[in-house]
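MODEL INPUT / OUTPUT PAIR
PAIR INDEX: 1
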Amino acid sequence: MSTSEDPEIVIIGCGVSGIAAAHRLVEAGYRHVRILEATGRSGGRIKTAALGYLKKHHSTLFHPPLPAHKLKSIKTLGFGTCDKIFVEFESPWWDADCDIIYLVWEDEVLSDVSKSWIRKLVTFTVHKPSEKGSHVLCGWICGHEAEYMETLPEEKVRESITKLVRTFTGKNRQQENKNTRILCSRWFTDPWTYGSYCHPAIGCTAEDLKNMMEPLPSQETLSQPLQVLFAGEATHPYFYSTVHGAILTGWREADRLISHY
């Protein structure tokens, strides 16, 4: 049974900020700390709710509804998609000391995203082999092109990457640059995320970032105990869209509860 000195605290989402907050609270001596996760695993953006989910489902998550100024900020703050495509090759077609590969096109990008989406994949980072015979690149793709890529079957993505690599390396190296398998992230179509990272969109102000981190009830009207606190990369005024931003906000809200009680 919890008391006012040791309240029952529920953290929604077992992501980086949720785990950081729970760890800080337990270290401070709080015994009634519980994390709720929608799936059977932890990991935050791997499988849990994000700002994209909050944008889509805030009306069913909160009763009574969130204050108007917080809703405005949730709607105003941008939330985009950045996907990774891991590609394994039979043999490396890049130099042994290569860390990153940039692809530069000479002509303009086509307006038809179904034909031009692969051109948005302009960077590959080289993953150093963790096991013998492993040759893996990580491709980065963002925006509407990433969203379109998520609608395609993996075999189609694989074929497109094969053509892309051969365009830049030359047809005489077809056997050398053959990929064996791929793995794609799909943040935009994931029902627990609807995107990857937040960003200040057009019309977003510093006040919106401040509103995102504001607890309920607000600190200006603490006539009743704190009920809902907000953490996550989207609630940090400077380090949004970063993992360390998520960790810092988890610690911030844990410290807010510790000082409050």
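PAIR INDEX: 2
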Amino acid sequence: MGGVASSVAAKLAFFPPSPPSYEMVTDPTTGMLRLSRFPHRENVEVLRLPTRRGTQIVAVYVRNPMASSTLLYSHGNAADLGQMYELFLELGIHLRVNLFAYDYSGYGQSTGKPNEQNTYADIEAAYKCLVEQYGTKEEEIILYGQSVGSGPTVNLATQLPRLRAIVLHSAILSGLRVMYPVKRTYWFDIYKNIDKIPLVKCPVLIIHYASKSSTIWLGLSDEVVDCSHGKKLWELCKEKYEPLWLKGGKHCDLELFPDYIKHLKKFISTVEKSPSQRSTPQISTDRFEPPRKSSDCFEPSRKSSDFREKHRLSTDKMRTKDRRSGNMDKMGKLKASFDQLEKFRRSVDHVDKSKKNTDQLDKGRKSVDRLDRVWAG
């Protein structure tokens, strides 16, 4: 029965855009690979990387000549590189970092199927490329995991004791805890961040949405995940940095807030200093900071951000109807497995007695995160 639960959790975790938002093409002028939607840029490289599990993943490396850190970015579960590309360019500029991002197996033009173990192999291949091909040192790398991307991020961080830092953006405690408020970890759970985060030895920045109801919305679903996911992870971190609780934000729009860039820049500036040079108030260990106030968008002067927002809204209008229909069909096929999981849960875990009915599980079947694709409709 645990295998059924694990399989259902995995199916709930991954929603690769279909069709992919880009194709791989060879630029006729340079002979280099690029994403079909975007022209060749001198500071951007597109690569195919083999993984230890036999798949090939697509990756993008964005250079910044002023950078002293490299961000290894693991995106959310309902986006691919084509949808994230413009954000990556902006982050590279505003944060003054090199940025390396990749599509999970089964996403975009990466081969294979998405599952927990494949994502671990995917991020390992990305890290290996940074070290071996670009000469990046472990202590220069900042791992960045958004939502489901927090799983491979935390897992890799436990293996790299000299990392510069990690950033967890709308992170989850575990896959099963997205669906149920269980109090202990089962062997069949996926992305057990709650058990792994205490093993991370570098500074950790938590970025999470905070509202009056202390919840975040998940994609098309009416189901919510408590903001306590982010707060609990913060509590368990060994080397805590001042967290960013974005009041009024949603699960997939946090990067639109001015404080997002400001706080991230401040964090990177701090961790780039040697430990003895870091300002002690920045590494917080005693209590939560109150939610930081933010507006609903970037400052008007950020033209590139305005362009990205307009592009996001226009793209949403074209895709929302088909995406919703496809996801509803996929969720309908999982109904039998969900019913089995609900019976198993009642028989082995009394902590779930408080759940009034199985409608919440039915709602939880949808995306763990919709970066910017479905709310405009």
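PAIR 2 NOTE: The CA atoms of residues 201 and 305 lie 34 Å apart.
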